[in-house]
Amino acid sequence: MLHINKDVTLELLSLSHRDELFALVDANREYLRAWLPWLDGNTSPADTEEFIKAVILQYEAGMGPQYAIFHRSDLCGVCGFHEIDCRNRVGSIGYWISQEHSGKGIMTQSVKTLIDIGFTQYKLNRIEMRCAVENHKSRAIPERLGFQLEGVLRQKENLYGEFVDLASYSLLASEYVLSE
């Protein structure tokens, strides 16, 4: 368990999170659907279990952790590495948070911890984040954390039949300052 501050902790995703995580996704389905393309593929606790099993295998293979985010003991979201390209020492971070917990700085602090892990434990040279151009809340996180906007990937993601542009951000190890 990683203690971010007195209210926020991160726990490696495990099968023990299955039911609570599915319930959180289900309760926030319409809110999350605005920007996340995977909701139609997660319609039961069994789907959530398959996701968790996949991220456990990813972590065990040295390809980066995925964390359950807790605010005052309430599961409120997920953040982690989508993938790590070991050869090129590049990691890609993704995240989501419940509507109730959005806008409280929880995700920014959680992602900052992921960045620390990426540069110190995984010895990455580059960390990337991609957000839908119109998803201003999500884009604020890499911008707040000093990432550089590298450009826009046109019609990069199929969001329920509509192709959306993604803003592509990066932070290099040479630009990184360890969190206090």
Automatic annotation (TrEMBL):
<dbReference type="Pfam" id="PF13302">
    <property type="entry name" value="Acetyltransf_3"/>
</dbReference>
<dbReference type="InterPro" id="IPR051908">
    <property type="entry name" value="Ribosomal_N-acetyltransferase"/>
</dbReference>
<dbReference type="GO" id="GO:0016746">
    <property type="term" value="F:acyltransferase activity"/>
</dbReference>
<keyword id="KW-0012">Acyltransferase</keyword>
<protein>
    <submittedName>
        <fullName>GNAT family N-acetyltransferase</fullName>
        <ecNumber>2.3.-.-</ecNumber>
    </submittedName>
</protein>
<feature type="domain" description="N-acetyltransferase">
    <location>
        <begin position="22"/>
        <end position="165"/>
    </location>
</feature>
<keyword id="KW-0808">Transferase</keyword>
<dbReference type="InterPro" id="IPR000182">
    <property type="entry name" value="GNAT_dom"/>
</dbReference>
<dbReference type="InterPro" id="IPR016181">
    <property type="entry name" value="Acyl_CoA_acyltransferase"/>
</dbReference>
